[in-house]
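User: Please write out a complete single-protein record containing the residue sequence and its fold in token form, without commentary.

AI:
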Amino acid sequence: MIVSIHQPNFVPWLGYFFKIYKSDTFVILDNVQFTKNGFTNRNRIKTPQGESWLTLPIIQSGKFGQNITDCVIFNKGLHVKKMISTLSANYKKAKYFDNYFDTISSIMKLSDDNLCNLNIQLIEFSLVQLEIKTQIVRSSELKNIEGESTERLISICKALGATKYLAGLGAKKYQDDELFTRNSIEAINSPFKFPVYDQLWGEFVPNLSILDVLFNCGPETKTILQNAV
């Protein structure tokens, strides 16, 4: 059985969903420390001026070292309103904008102010659009998970009975593949290669949020994802 693991990123890039697509079980690593300037509360979109960040600020004062599960969006109503306006301004001319915008807006507006909960709702929405039926598990729901870094990943894999661990493209920076081997789990790397697709606003920009692909490509996003090798 193939297991992959990742933090609950905010409207992640296509490679995130490719890793889920190639797995039997995907673990949302929600009970680890929030990392500032990562992708947990922000991601990139495309504007007429080039790429730009969509960011949901979180309350950090007095909360150093807080887990992702505990992150609260600062002044959520205001920042979600601004974000929805930004998406409309930059994607309303996209071919499939109307297919998704209202639902995405509703998810953002109606979710509570917990960042993790919102991110998971948006991830689940995207999985439905991509027709990905991989089992999704939150790491906070698993029992007796131990260790840090690679040891923690192995502990999660063992809890789920994994024979293979599918790592993302950046795993080589921190992952100890030999430790997986010693624990009878095969560590494999995602074969994902970012595809070129039709975008608004001139020259193609890779590695943007899944929203960019959905708004521009609509139902074809599923095929684009499956062929991204």
Notes: The chain has eight helices and seven strands.
